[in-house]
């Protein structure tokens, strides 16, 4: 491909192919498009078998010519998986099984009657079926980074081009100067989505200003926050947007080589990304003299190997160079002295996914979305105790209440909301009274939490906050690379104190000691991992100090989580069925048949078997 | 465990891998990834071979291998059971599931059973948070687990172990 005209020709031709998905049936050569989600979540619940069954059923009804089966990336609502969407109507089926496929084909495709019971909850309003984008889960969302996830086949570059793919690169390379691209990026106000929140345009300008003949673009796809998976979903659902953005960054800064560093634990993402890179090369969108200019750019994939600290940029660069993934002190920043000592732009996957649309639609369009200091949207991985778990994208400034209770559908099982943890192991938790704060970079930091990469774990009254703090510390202790002492030793000492507290052996002085160490680790650690590791402790101590005190003074875990503080009791409604006594592995339960049983708490090992076995709910933990 | 890890064919394959990466910048990580795939682990003999052929000091290779959790020096079991310990799974009782499996397979977390059949791992988030809590046995994914013992027994039944 050497000219814009060639790209536009492909785009026009392929537009017809995807038009149906935009609700237009004018020029469509197919009657239906069936989009089958094949993100990791749905793949693990049999979406490949579902695709195969569809193929068979379509042939059975002789519909294979009229119907296009498209395997796509993630739709976001993993809770409902496996899921499919049927266009042109945009009808969303959830929790599909292979057995139901023949029904869908027969009733919906042949007879034109969608099956209401099998639709995504909330799809039927006043007896009418509404398209999925009107359903409460999607209504408040605004999808920019996830724009094409679920709408295209990620393994076919033509579908990306049909949705204006690579037009931003053409615009930049053919009509703009590198300085203009950077100015557009700075004006847009886009800030790094990986956690730092630094201006992307300004970062690019640092690298552009250096006068080195070798510069690099690196994409950070080492998504380590346990509970966040937006980067994986973008790479799985729309890898070309990242490739295009990296090429634009290369043009703007004068770099001609890029690396994508992805976790080895994401095989599907790696596979689709490599396919996309190959296809882009075949079309001449990567390689020598792109669009007939003297701009060359190519991309290589490098795999991570399971070290959380490699999400830190200098550690990541060390890992690409083939060393242990340990951070270096900054400055010098990678933008000036990075990979192999050369100036390197390093941005995260979600950040890159926003770039092509900013170049194509202009910075003022992007700036119109979001809050004063945080522009655009943010993707959150909503998980834990919330009905609609999955991936969501909302404009910056949306409140936590809207995210958790409207998009997320609230807390399952009539339980009470307790807290939400944002930013993973580096973040903090927020409570009921902060639910109405508009979410952006600065508001979260001010509250002692942080945006991080966008993990959002909801907790209900059955979660113990001491235990949660312990969980995150356990994570950081394991993942601390050991290079600097405050992080290596400090996190370990903090974890020990937390263990002591949850074992019922803590003292009130421990809380002071905990706060003191937390403060020191925060200010003296080398990299972000250590500097933010104390956040979960500090924020739970701030909001749930009473829970810590209950563990220490009353020797009680209010939510019934910390095992060593629990005792099992049999209630009066025991009918003496003997089931618990028979199953108790240490014979701690005594009692005659048809009489009230009794647990000897000095023998009980708290294995929970009796509680699981009791058919009468007569066993209580307190 | 008596597995024929280092047969001639595989050593030759390793030499090819190293040769293929002759001109790769920062070649150690890609070589280790492919070696881990080839042998299922990266024992000392393999590390020595890589050191010989690449002129990277053995100490440095050992340092890198032991730094990353994806690489292992010891061979793993036939079935690798990974219990996801990501936050979403953890708050939905993944800890309990790990305990049940550990008891049922008689293997400690991070270790391989004596008969070489199972390796039990507590793994980082596998990104299937929508299906939490999740475990994987080799490539097979089991999601939306309830956390009781029977469920674990049912899964084990598939792998012919009681």
- Side by side, the strands of the main sheet of chain B go 2-1-3-4
Termini of chain A, distance in Å?
70 Å
Structural class of chain A: alpha/beta
Discrete helix count of chain A = 25
Helix content of chain A: 25-40%
Q: Name the largest protein-protein interface in this structure.
A: A-B, 53 and 40 residues
Number of strands of chain B: 4
Helix segment count of chain B? 7
**Biggest beta-sheet profile of chain A:** 5 strands, mixed
Low-confidence stretches of chain B: none
Helical percent range of chain B? 40-55%
Label the overall shape of chain A: globular
Question: Strands of the largest sheet of chain A, in order across it?
Answer: 12-11-15-13-14
3D architecture notes:
The complex is a heterodimer of chains A (622) and B (162). Chain A is α/β, with parallel strands linked by helices and 622 residues long. Helix content of chain A is 39%, strand content 14%. Chain A is built from 25 helices and 19 strands. In chain A, helix 7 crosses helix 14, helix 10 runs parallel beside helix 12 (267-282) and helix 19 packs antiparallel against helix 20 (508-524). The longest helix of chain A is centred in the C-terminal third of the chain and has 18 residues, at 485-502. Chain A is globular. With 162 residues, chain B is α+β, with helices and mostly antiparallel strands. In chain B, helix 1 (8-20) runs parallel beside helix 3 (44-54) and helix 6 packs across helix 7. The longest helix of chain B is centred in the N-terminal third of the chain and has 13 residues, at 8-20.
């Amino acid at each position: 491909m050497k000219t814009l005209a060639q790209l536009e020709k492909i785009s026009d031709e392929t537009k017809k192919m995807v038009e149906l998905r935009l609700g237009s049936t004018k020029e469509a050569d197919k009657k239906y498009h069936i989009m089958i989600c094949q993100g990791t979540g749905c793949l693990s619940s049999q979406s490949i078998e579902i695709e195969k069954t569809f193929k068979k059923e379509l042939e059975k009804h002789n519909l294979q010519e009229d119907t296009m089966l498209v395997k796509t990336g993630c739709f976001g609502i993993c809770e409902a998986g496996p899921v499919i969407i049927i266009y042109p109507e945009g009808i969303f089926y959830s929790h599909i099984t292979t057995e139901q496929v023949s029904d869908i084909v027969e009733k919906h495709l042949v007879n034109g009657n969608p099956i209401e019971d099998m639709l995504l909850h909330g799809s039927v309003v006043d007896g009418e079926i509404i398209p999925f984008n009107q359903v409460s889960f999607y209504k408040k969302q605004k999808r920019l980074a996830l724009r094409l996830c679920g709408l295209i086949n990620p393994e076919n570059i033509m579908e990306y081009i049909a949705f204006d793919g690579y037009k931003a690169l053409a615009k930049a390379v053919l009509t703009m100067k590198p300085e203009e691209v950077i100015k557009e990026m700075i004006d847009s106000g886009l800030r790094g989505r990986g956690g730092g929140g630094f201006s992307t345009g300004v970062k690019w300008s640092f690298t552009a200003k250096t006068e080195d003949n070798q510069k690099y673009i690196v994409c950070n796809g080492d998504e380590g926050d346990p509970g966040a998976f937006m980067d994986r979903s973008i790479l799985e659902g729309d890898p070309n947007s990242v490739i295009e953005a990296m090429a634009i960054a290369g043009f703007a800064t004068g770099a001609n080589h890029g690396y994508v560093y992805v976790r080895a634990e994401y095989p599907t993402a790696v596979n689709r990304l490599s396919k996309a890179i190959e296809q882009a090369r075949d079309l001449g969108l990567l390689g020598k003299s792109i669009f007939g200019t003297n701009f060359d750019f190519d991309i290589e994939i490098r795999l991570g190997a399971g070290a959380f600290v490699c999400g830190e940029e200098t550690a990541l660069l060390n890992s690409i160079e083939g060393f242990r993934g340990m951070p270096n002190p900054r400055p010098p920043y990678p933008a000036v002295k990075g990979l192999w000592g050369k100036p390197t732009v390093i941005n995260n996957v979600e950040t890159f996914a926003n770039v092509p649309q900013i170049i194509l639609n202009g910075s003022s369009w992007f700036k119109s979305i979001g809050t004063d200091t945080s522009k655009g949207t943010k993707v959150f991985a909503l998980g834990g105790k919330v009905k609609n778990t999955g991936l969501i994208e909302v404009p910056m400034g949306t409140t936590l209440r809207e995210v958790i209770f409207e998009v997320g559908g609230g807390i399952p099982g009539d339980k009470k909301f307790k807290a939400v943890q944002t930013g993973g192991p580096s973040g903090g938790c927020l409570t009921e009274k902060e639910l109405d704060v508009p979410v952006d970079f600065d508001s979260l930091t001010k509250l002692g939490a942080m945006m991080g990469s966008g993990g959002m774990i909801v907790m209900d009254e059955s979660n113990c906050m001491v235990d949660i703090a312990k969980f995150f510390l356990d994570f950081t202790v394991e993942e601390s690379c050991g290079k600097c002492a405050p992080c290596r030793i400090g996190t370990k000492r903090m974890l020990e104190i937390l263990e002591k507290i949850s074992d019922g052996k803590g003292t009130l002085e421990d809380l002071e000691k905990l706060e003191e160490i937390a403060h020191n680790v925060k200010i003296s650690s080398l990299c972000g991992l250590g500097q933010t590791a104390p956040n979960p402790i500090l924020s739970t101590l701030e909001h749930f100090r009473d829970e810590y005190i209950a563990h220490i003074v009353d020797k009680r875990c209010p939510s019934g989580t910390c095992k060593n503080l629990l005792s099992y009791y049999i209630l009066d409604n025991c009918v003496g069925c003997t089931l618990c006594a028979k199953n108790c592995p240490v014979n701690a339960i005594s009692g005659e048949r048809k009489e009230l049983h009794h647990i000897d708490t000095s023998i009980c090992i708290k294995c929970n078997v009796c509680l699981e076995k009791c058919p009468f709910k007569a066993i209580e933990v307190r | 465990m008596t597995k024929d890890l280092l047969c001639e064919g595989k050593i030759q394959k390793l030499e090819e891998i190293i040769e293929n990466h002759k001109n790769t910048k920062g070649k150690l990580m890609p070589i280790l990834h492919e070696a881990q795939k080839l042998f299922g682990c990266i024992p000392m003999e393999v590390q020595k071979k890589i050191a010989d052929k690449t002129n990277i000091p053995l100490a440095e290779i050992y340092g890198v291998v032991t730094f990353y959790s994806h690489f292992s020096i010891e061979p793993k079991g036939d079935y690798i059971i990974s219990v996801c310990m990501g936050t979403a799974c953890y708050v939905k009782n993944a800890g309990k599931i790990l305990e049940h499996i550990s008891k049922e397979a008689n293997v400690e977390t991070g270790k391989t059973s004596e008969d070489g059949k199972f390796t039990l791992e507590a793994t980082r988030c596998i990104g299937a948070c929508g299906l939490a809590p999740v475990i994987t046995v080799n490539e097979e994914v089991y999601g939306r687990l309830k956390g009781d013992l029977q469920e674990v027994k049912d899964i084990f039944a598939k792998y012919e172990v009681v």
